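Cross-check.
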Amino acid sequence: MVRKIKFCMAGFGNVGKAFARLLLEKKAELAAEYGCEMLLTGVCTRSGGALVNADGLSFEKVLKMNERKERFAGCKNFADGGVPEMISASGAEIFLELTTLSAGGGEPAAGYIRQALNSGMHVITSNKGPEAWCFDELNALAKKNGRLFLYESSVMGGAPLFSLVRHSLRGNRIVAVKGILNATTNFLLGELEKGADFGAALKEAQRMGIAEADPSADINGLDGAAKICVLANVLMNASVNPGMTFIKSLAGVSAADLEAARGSGCRIKFICRAERDESGAVKTSVKPENVCTDDPLANAGGSSTAVTLYTDLAGELSVVHTDPGIMQTAYGVYSDLLTVLEAAC
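Predicted model, tokenized:
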């Protein structure tokens, strides 16, 4: 017998839409392998409003409405209020937090996650803010309530970093992390190396959908700071946040700097680091660095991201995610969903 698993969603942008398509594509597979059918009972978007029906919404209709940029107001299951009201009324077992990063210390997303965990829901998020600012609290809350709190797609999209450490590096201690965690700035550096000027490179990145209309969080290192804090908090028990991170903007890198790096057998990369100092405290930084060409990170080109984990037993392990897109981030969400289903079904 196929069991219906109720879930609700906050955020239905590019990642949410890609996840929706993936979930519809995998419907038969989920029924066959996990004996379950996913039933959407609530969705809340910034521009469209919220829909709630504890007995189930038509995922296909919601997706089509969203793609046509239609507001939910006037629909049969339209609900007043925002995400908190949607969570309360959804009757869901799983909450997907797919909103975008805000500058407010992980809020309001962290608040949504608190509410969902306290309501007995498992939580999956693609938002790096809650883990960058509130990981210890939220992780402890999940354990207290016997729920799963998963975040695979929050850093490097669908690259299975957290799953890798959790399942394949058991017994290892992560002593340091070094990575290229922002696809936009990696693409920009590659274009600058080819001789493009910064403005032209940025316009091309925006045309390709790699860069946001406002790329300041990428270029000034705020996105990288949030991501390295997630890795430090989850993998190194660091209890750090972006406000504690040393950041140097990419904007100051010149053609002369790139040429000088090449002359010394290096490439400039926008490197995020988490390292322990002599006292044992974890220090995080985001800044342009010269990286020798024999380093795996030096050869991560285009919009690729990459990370090197330094472990006490397994040595150095590098993962390169080649030119990831929205579908890879959606896959990270789907991978976390399978983890929940394995525990719940």
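The mean pLDDT is 94. The chain is about 40% helix and 25% strand. Passed to J.P. for a second look.
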